[in-house]
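Recall the central idea of this unit: under ordinary conditions, the amino acid sequence of a chain determines the structure it adopts. In this exercise we apply that idea directly, starting from the sequence alone.
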Amino acid sequence: MLAMTRSMDSNIPKSEPIEEAAVRWFTRQQSGAWNEAEQASLDAWLEENVAHRIQYLRIKHVWDKTDSMKALGAGVPAGAIPPRGSWGDKRFLRGGGSVAAAPRVLSHDGMSAKPRPRIPFFAAAAALLVLAGSIYLFYAGLFAGTRYSTPVGGIQTVALADGSQATLNTDTSLRVILGDRERQIRLNSGEAFFEVAKDSKRPFVVYVDNKRVMAVGTKFAVRRNNDDVQVVVTEGRVKLDHSSGESSPPVAFLDAGTIARTSKSEVMVRRNVQSEAEKLLSWRIGYVSFDNVPLGEAAVELNRYNARKIVIDDPAIAALRIGGNFRSNNTDAFLDLLQSGFPIAVEQREHEVILRAR
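Accordingly, the structure predicted from this sequence is:
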């Protein structure tokens, strides 16, 4: 599976598809504000996976093809595209003239002759227009759609234009693009539950890095963990596979009552676990549910919903097993129960809560 590390350039989000990150890397490199540390970060990103290098080389190839047109950009800042309407600007023409004011040429007999065609210029300008159009379309796609997000501890349900519904869990960010052939969700962070309106001509696809979860009409949740996913299906059927193309074999078909988790190139599927699936989705009504889990695992889950984090200062405490249903945003009640039921001391600080053995 493909992963993208956080670079020194904060303008390259970890969640973006590989081709988008490659464009941002290359654009940043050509901007003139490039340094050794950024080059080292780029080198590390390129070494992570062959797909990173392929996408970067594709973009570089297109750029190199335009090398012969660099003279046309005289006076334009590095990395910038000439503004719309400036193609006849004297900066882009030899001799500072304009297309409309091309000079007439006299032949050796003094008769007026037709101006020599300036095919190289117009061919180059046309190629530059195509390149600019391609860049425009790419970035139009990059920023297309509708974005939704929730803060830490927030939960939001939104109605989508196709009749579907999405419920965003805490600290979640996603982008919705409802195209003619595909209804696309880009899950940048967090977790969301989808109730999908049926449309056999437009599959409903959730993308997480190079993984995708595809459905037509169903109910399921997708949780992002870095570049891996957890999928919980409560109704219908979904397909979990790679987004590299239709020729890639599916990772798994998931029916109602199924939980799937990925780890790099591996996937684990548990079927017929409806009760566990419902517990995993109890966040929709403001609860987290634990069933004999280590305290350390429970603390990590509760920390997703609260700005003040629980920090366990003793490995022996982290191994204690607990169970029950708890309000996701009420850590005080959770801590009170811990102190009353276990030999645990709680130290309250401004931004964190420390747990130690008592």
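Helices lie at 18-30, 36-48, 50-65, 119-142, 274-280, 295-303, 315-318, 331-341.
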